[in-house]
């Protein structure tokens, strides 16, 4: 009987100790694995490793794409070649913005109360490309390789232009790509949205299931540029 | 003997199954609380070995020590005094003291010869 008198209270206490210990273990591992508590040197090595990995993966991707291209060419009948060329043409016209494109993506809307400069739009678009955007448009202007984003002035008031067309507020930037990835690319801590917030600009970011981007207004003619391989 | 160990395992299982997460800012206070609770447990075990065990003292001591340790650590942070360190020190010293006492008792129990031998020499 005397044995039990100490066993039960000790058991009760040990149950609580068990709960406390496991909870503390879990949260401590969470704290230790959290990126913000890591040492700078570790973080630097992590970044280096990851970027090394990225470079090697990109090289691998390039070689694989080369072999794919070679295989396509070697095993091609006439019909196949035409099909491939058509597919390439489609892809290129999307890249050049010669055709309307649709797909899931992200919209970023600046209202007239957001104090933004044209450089902010440039940075934002760079960030979107970096986050994997496949096509971008500002209001109704499709962004392609020769889009100019600048500013103009009328009566001491500044306006932003895209391809020399003044942009009217609200300025909406539409980007096609994985909505989540694009969102993360913009809203990561210390990212562009954080930077804009320092200047009291709070754009509205919305993930969209279906976006339609307009085609460029006019195609760019080539007079001087030639393919190097054929010369 | 086995019931307390089963209790510890049972508690560990409960702790790992519940999805409750302590917010990161409270982890520091929680660590002091865990230390205090460990101290109470070893104190209890020591009392059992010394035949001075009192369940009320253990239970009240366990809960009040744990809560007070966490609260004092928190209060210390509010006041800018590192009471956290004081608690770690106090409970740490007591923990090792209790552990040493437990070891002595166990040694005395299992190796009575050792004890007797020591007394003779």
List keywords for this structure.
heterodimer; A: 231 residues; alpha+beta; Alpha-Beta Plaits; five-stranded antiparallel beta sheet; three-stranded antiparallel beta sheet; 6 helices; 8 strands; 50% helix; extended; B: 121 residues; mainly alpha
Question: How would you describe this protein?
Answer:
The complex is a heterodimer of chains A (231) and B (121). Chain A is of the alpha+beta class and 231 residues long. Chain A folds into two domains: 7-95, no CATH class; 101-213, 2-Layer Sandwich (Alpha-Beta Plaits). Helices cover 50% and strands 20% of the residues of chain A. Chain A has six helices and eight strands. A five-stranded antiparallel beta sheet of chain A has the order 3-2-7-1-8, with helices on one face. A three-stranded antiparallel beta sheet of chain A has the order 4-5-6, covered by helices on one side. The relative contact order of chain A is 0.12. With 121 residues, chain B is an all-alpha fold. Chain B has one domain (2-120). In chain B, helix 2 runs antiparallel to helix 3 (55-79), helix 2 (27-49) runs parallel beside helix 4 (83-110) and helix 4 (83-110) packs across helix 5 (112-120).
Concise synopsis of the structure shown:
Chain A is α+β, with helices and mostly antiparallel strands and about 230 residues long. Chain A contains six helices and eight strands, in the order αααβαββββββααβ. In chain A, strands 3-2-7-1-8 form a five-stranded antiparallel beta sheet, with helices on one face. A three-stranded antiparallel beta sheet of chain A has the order 4-5-6, with helices on one face.
Topology pattern of chain B, helix = H, strand = E: HHHHH
Secondary structure tally, helices of chain A: 6
Using the alpha-carbon principal axes, give the shape of chain A: extended
List unreliable stretches of 5+ residues of chain A: none
- State the helical fraction of chain B: over 70%
What amount of the residues of chain B lies in strands? under 5%
Q: Could you spell the SSE succession of chain A in H and E letters?
A: HHHEHEEEEEEHHE
Instruction: Tell me the fraction of residues in β-strands of chain A, as a range.
Output: 15-25%
Main β-sheet description of chain B: none
């Amino acid at each position: 009987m005397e044995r039990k008198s100490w066993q039960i209270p000790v058991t009760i206490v040990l149950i609580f100790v068990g709960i406390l210990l496991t909870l503390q273990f879990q949260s401590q591992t969470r704290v230790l694995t959290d990126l913000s508590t890591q040492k700078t040197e570790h973080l630097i090595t992590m970044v280096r490793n990851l970027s090394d990995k990225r470079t090697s993966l990109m090289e691998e991707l390039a070689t694989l794409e080369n072999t794919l291209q070679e295989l396509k060419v070697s095993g091609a009948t006439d019909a196949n070649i035409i099909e491939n060329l058509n597919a390439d043409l489609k892809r290129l016209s999307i890249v050049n913005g010669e055709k309307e494109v649709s797909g899931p993506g992200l919209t970023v809307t600046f209202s007239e109360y957001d104090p933004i400069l044209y450089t902010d739009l440039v940075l934002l678009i760079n960030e979107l490309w970096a986050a994997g955007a496949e096509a971008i448009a500002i209001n109704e202007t499709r962004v392609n390789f020769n889009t100019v984003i600048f500013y103009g002035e009328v009566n001491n008031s500044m306006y932003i232009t895209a391809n020399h067309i003044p942009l009217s507020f609200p300025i909406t930037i539409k980007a096609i790509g994985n909505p989540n990835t694009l969102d993360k690319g913009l809203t990561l801590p210390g990212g562009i949205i954080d930077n804009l917030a320092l200047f009291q600009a709070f754009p509205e970011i919305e993930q969209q299931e279906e976006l339609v981007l307009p085609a460029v207004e006019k195609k760019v003619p080539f007079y001087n540029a030639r393919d190097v391989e054929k010369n | 003997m086995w019931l307390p160990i089963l209790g510890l395992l049972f508690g560990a299982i409960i702790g790992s199954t519940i999805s409750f997460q302590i917010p990161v800012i409270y982890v520091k206070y929680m660590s002091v609380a865990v230390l205090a609770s460990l101290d109470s447990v070893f104190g209890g075990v020591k009392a059992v070995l010394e035949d001075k065990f009192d369940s009320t003292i253990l239970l009240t001591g366990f809960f009040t020590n744990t809560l007070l340790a966490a609260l004092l650590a928190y209060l210390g942070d509010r006041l800018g005094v590192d009471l956290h360190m004081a608690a770690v020190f106090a409970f740490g010293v007591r923990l090792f003291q209790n552990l040493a006492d437990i070891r002595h008792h166990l040694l005395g129990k299992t190796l009575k010869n050792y004890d007797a031998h020591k007394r003779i020499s």
